[in-house]
Amino acid sequence: MPSQPVDAELLQRMDAYWRAANYLSVGQIYLYDNPLLREPLKLEHVKRLLLGHWGTTPGQNFIYVHLNRLIRQYDLNMIYMAGPGHGGPALVGNVYLEGTYSEIYPHISRDEAGLRKLFRQFSFPGGIPSHVSPECPGSIHEGGELGYSMSHAHGAVFDNPDLIVSCIIGDGEAETGPLATAWHSNKFLDPVGDGAVLPILHLNGYKIANPTILARIPRAELVAMLKGCGWTPYFVEGSEPAAMHRAMADTLDKVIAEIRAIQHAARTQGVTSRPRWPMVVLRSPKGWTGPKRVDGKPNEGSFRSHQVPISVGPTAPKRHLKQLEEWLRSYRPEELFDEQGTLKPELAALAPEGQRRMGANPNANGGLLLRDLNLPDFRSYAIEVATPGIGGIGDTRVLAPFLRDVLAMNSDHRNFRLFGPDETVSNGLEGVFKATSRQWEAKIERNDDYLARSGGVMEVLSEHQCEGWLEGYLLTGRHGLFNCYEAFIHIVDSMFNQHAKWLKVTAGLPWRRKIASLNYLLSSHVWRQDHNGFTHQDPGFIDHVANKKASIVRVYLPPDANCLLSVIDHCLRSRHYVNVVIAGKHPAPQWLGMEAAAQHCAEGIGVWHWASNDGDAEPDLVMACAGDVPTLETLGAVSILRQHMPALKIRVVNVVDLFRLQPADEHPHGLSDEDFDRLFTRDKPVIFAYHGYPWLIHRLTYRRANHDNMHVRGYKEEGTITTPFDMTVLNDLDRFHLTMDAINRLPQTGVAGFELKGLLESKLHEHRLYINQYGEDMPEIRNWKWDASKWSTRSS
Known about the structure:
Number of strands: 20
Radius of gyration: 30 Å
Strand content: 5-15%
Largest sheet: 6 strands, parallel
Number of helices: 27
Helix content: 25-40%
């Protein structure tokens, strides 16, 4: 590390570069033409609709130019994370100045014509969004929805020991719950095997219309908070540019020296104590270098600079156009760009080169770094199913050894991790700890289980952090799986939204390489939360996912362990999707041998001939199911019907891939109408037992010919602490209700059907009396098995 401070001449050139970035930022918000002010500014040179966010932008430009200096001086592998991503002009402008933007978008050339296009496209129809969007090179974090920058930053550096993520945290963003928790991500950062996060808390004082908390509390409180979270804060404060450049340069030199010292001590000297990583607190005015006052009111250093500081247009005061021109000319563009409109060479030389440029770093285009996982043959973990309905230990418990070996087989590459909010053991995946540990940098006590300084499992009781870590891990070219209680995955509904949108947009950008899919394994699901009660019973994440682009989302409901193995293998091999898999952890019947399971999952939907008696002819009734518990109850209902009404021709259809139900022109996995009718008929009653809220099935199938005959049972928001079977009874999903539903739609059952309904109503009454007395389900429910010798007509 240098012993001498940065020389004054370099700081002057950095100030000029900062002025260039600020000029480009203002130009993007305002200018339609005359990009270098080669003539006096006129109204026709200004966009008719002014959009964008100025307030955070000059501070981020300031940070970017100083990080460029660090990268060049110390040959750093660094990317930039813009927490206040509404400062899109800053990032677009900087990756343009460094040359990356024009390499990816050659029509945005590095001259006056390119500047005109750069300015005109910003927040403009057919152009680019106002945030640090996927279209912006160097971005893996749009920052439109605030709160996730630190989580993404830490996920990016896990298993990435050479990488530093400079994470800019807006003081508005710092008020969000996810960000407040993310300060503790340093307790999970291994200085040996992981990279480093450099948080830069940018205190510019205001949000859209209010002051920010961290900017207004006493400095001693802020220091106490940051130190209490395990960070060593360094302050850079002021508004006078020359002094701020000197302070920022000196501070960043200290910070990089500390980061390198921490990593050196851990990697070469065996130091295992948890380090106190450095961070920077940058306090600068909101809207720095912008107009001091507009219409007599303070602007720079005020919330009024948050978006567009000066209104310009036919109905705005004429003085505003003059004030805008004065503001633009204050950056002295004639000193920054040559006659062709190209950044002058002495300034362009300040940017890093090649892939050291933050806009060109491959970590910010993770598909470039993505390697296939080494995966074991999932078939070798199969349960032998000699006959349908044999007992199982719990589907996720069968999956655990497969995931254990995925972790082991990829430990050298360090490109697969399992994430979860303290639920890996609870969700039946304890077996993975035979191959790895939970990564944990805080104190480890003697009676702790599975904790180590380095490990492949990341657990913290914050679904937001798990989601953010995993997203950052995936976006930088690795693979992972998020296991969670089904009801509480809703906590990350909005984070899922943002990631799904990111995938949708990047799929349309040829230069963005596809990344590994975001995989959710949801267990402890709605039908087996009988011990936790109503608060833990909610299958609605599926409905939420179904709202997203069909090209991105997938939902799988494997009915047993062998199907779960096949589905997870498929998901881990997939690219650029969000895969949602719902599976149980409790002992449950197993239906399909491995080859039958693999074929069934590949098709996504199919007739279970061994449970049907229609002989491939037209059935009287279709009994359909999706989900492990609905499958069990459907087969229970089928057995009742076949025992009491053997003449009925029943077809059993099981759905694994939920979107097979949609038409082919709505979802790439959708069935053609012909294939759908072949399964569900065009005019026969269909009793559909579904894992989630029943109206989703209607939504997926409303255009089908037989939709009017489709009767769906699922979760209807009835729950409590009760028995497993009673959960289905409360929601009319149990075998008795399903059988009665079938009889109600089969008038040919006549008196026999009426009598059977009476019997089943008595059974429901008996069930209620029994569980209220004994606290468990009736023996005939607990011990029920599919009678393969009596009902099977074909082999599985």
